Amino acid sequence: MKDRTRLITWDIALLTGILIYINIHMPERYSLIVGLSTVMVLTNCINNHIAAYKFSGKIY
Question: What domain range includes position 51?
Answer without folding.
Answer: 1-56
